[in-house]
Design goal:
The chain starts with a strand and ends with a helix. The strands form two sheets. A six-stranded parallel β-sheet has the order 2-1-3-4-7-8, with helices on both faces. The chain has about 240 residues and is an alpha/beta fold. Helix 2 packs across helix 3 and helix 3 runs parallel beside helix 6. The radius of gyration is 17 Å and the shape is globular.
């Protein structure tokens, strides 16, 4: 049976896939995973792309047949997993809302966020409000949504986000290298099938940017960056395309 792996984006949690999961009839195991330094996953000293992919790989069996769906940062990790250097045998990747063009200001801004360190709040509500803003979910979900369930942690110093601030220190994405690695991978007889898409109104990436890497960009009409929450039926339809 083929496992479906669902990987969230920067600052979010595996709960962002809850609405998508409810619309699926996947014949195998479905696992929504918290990336390292997010949600219930442990903090790590390595949040590089390879480090994030290795942490996901550690939760898979060697040679496990998988389809990997990732949003934003999770989409980049999904492509990395399709390189053939990790445990799962990835036969298809769906990447949604991947930021493909990075400026020096983008990189500096991420480094600045990473350098701010942990911020504590007096109440859970205040911490959740911050989480929703950081995860790009502000105005899209309420405090009862599954994405919020493991988003904050209570400590002796107060409430903080479950996310390690160090996860923000990401390098620009080398899409050409990732796509080449996935397309040429020997993890399946034909290599990994790659579908890339985004919301049509996603400020992080455009159709033109996506079309530089795939012939048929999938665009969710009226969708923003967190399209898996805004239009879970659209994401589910993409997943159904590659269902075994």
């Amino acid at each position: 049976m083929t496992t479906l792996l669902l990987l969230h984006g920067m600052g979010a949690t595996s709960g962002v896939w809850a609405d998508v999961e409810r619309q699926l009839d996947w014949p195998g195991d479905v696992r929504a995973i918290d990336l390292a330094g997010h949600g219930q996953s442990a903090w790590s000293g390595d949040y590089s792309l390879g480090g994030l992919a290795a942490a996901v790989s550690a939760q898979c069996d060697s040679g496990e047949d998988a389809v990997v769906v990732g949003h934003s940062l999770g989409g980049v990790v999904a492509l990395c997993l399709a390189s053939g250097f990790y445990r799962p045998s990835v036969r298809a990747v769906i990447g949604i809302g991947i930021k493909m063009t990075w400026t020096s200001d983008d990189v500096a801004g991420m480094a600045k966020m990473a350098g701010r360190g942990v911020r504590f709040f007096e109440s859970r509500d205040e911490a959740v409000t911050r989480f929703l803003r950081v995860a790009g979910l502000d105005g899209l979900v309420d405090a009862d949504h599954p994405a919020v369930e493991h988003s904050v942690v209570e400590t002796e110093e107060g409430w903080r986000l479950a996310q390690d601030p160090a996860t923000f220190a990401q390098n620009p994405v080398d899409m050409a290298a990732l796509m080449s690695g996935a397309q040429l991978s020997n993890v399946s007889p034909t290599g990994a099938t790659v579908i890339l898409g985004a919301g049509s109104d996603d400020p992080m990436v455009s159709r033109d940017e996506i079309s530089a890497y795939v012939d048929n960009p999938r665009m969710a009409a009226g969708g923003g960056h967190s399209v898996q929450v805004e239009q879970p039926d659209w994401v589910a339809s993409l997943i159904n395309e590659v269902a075994p």
